Amino acid sequence: TMEILMPPPQIYVERTLAIIKPDIVDKEEEIEDIILNSGFTIVQRRKLRFSPEQCSNFYVEQYGKMFFPNLTAYMSSGPLVAMILARHNAIPYWLDLMGPSNSFKAKETHPDSLRAIYGTDELRNALHGSKNFTAAEREIRFMFPEVVIEPIPSGEGARDYLELYVNPTLLAGLTELCKQKPADPFIWLADWLLTNNPNKPRLFQRELMEESNEAKTY
């Protein structure tokens, strides 16, 4: 009999775009170490230099704002490093790690954040991160036109995901199921998993949400 080989399972892991801005490119290795130690995988990276026109296209949502000319001048002032970062909840974790977009505010309210450590002022805030899933998709394709966003195949990444998120959640749910002994265990477990889903977006500090709403993520 012919054996049918099934394709390996694939785990979708969230991705975001990170940029090390021109004035701190010399801290690239230091920042990449922090990124890796924070549980991210650097899927791709490239060093490039933006033209003012490319800056305008990348920051198209900020067009017309008073700071826009200074922003394009700053971002085209030297080489920068763009990276695709991947991990569970990559977008909110990277925003959280960076801190508020205004470096002055970051130093006051989130002194351990990357913008507090590496940022200079309201404009020169050292790093960029995609503010949501739609922005991440657009920005990754802008910076990496050839990239194909594929799921991570089964292997170490998939095993890590299962061990970190899936198995503990199922174990907790099944343990609670045994305690509760509901009349319909399948419906009860389905409802429990919806309530305790580890992939639910987490809430950020209030000020970060307010800044996202103001679209002031540079």
TrEMBL record:
Superkingdom as given in the UniProt entry: Eukaryota
Entry protein name: Nucleoside diphosphate kinase homolog 5
Transmembrane domains' residue ranges: none
Gene3D superfamilies referenced in this protein's UniProt entry, alphabetically: cAMP-dependent protein kinase regulatory subunit, dimerization-anchoring domain, Nucleoside diphosphate kinase-like domain
Keyword Chloroplast: no
Entry's family note: Belongs to the NDK family.
One annotated Gene Ontology cellular component of this protein: radial spoke
Compartmental location: Cytoplasm, Cytoskeleton, Flagellum axoneme
GO biological process terms on file: cilium assembly; cilium movement; CTP biosynthetic process; DNA catabolic process; epithelial cilium movement involved in extracellular fluid movement; establishment of localization in cell; GTP biosynthetic process; negative regulation of oxidative stress-induced intrinsic apoptotic signaling pathway
Assigned keywords, A-Z: Cell projection, Cilium, Cytoplasm, Cytoskeleton, Developmental protein, Differentiation, Flagellum, Hydrolase, Spermatogenesis
Subunit structure comment from the entry: Component of the axonemal radial spoke complex 1 (RS1), at least composed of spoke head proteins RSPH1, RSPH3, RSPH9 and the cilia-specific component RSPH4A or sperm-specific component RSPH6A, spoke stalk proteins RSPH14, DNAJB13, DYDC1, ROPN1L and NME5, and the anchor protein IQUB. Interacts with IQUB.
Molecular-function GO term, any one: nucleoside diphosphate kinase activity
Keyword hit for Hydrolase: yes
Main localisation: cytoplasm
Residue ranges annotated for the Nucleoside diphosphate kinase-like domain, each copy included: 13-151
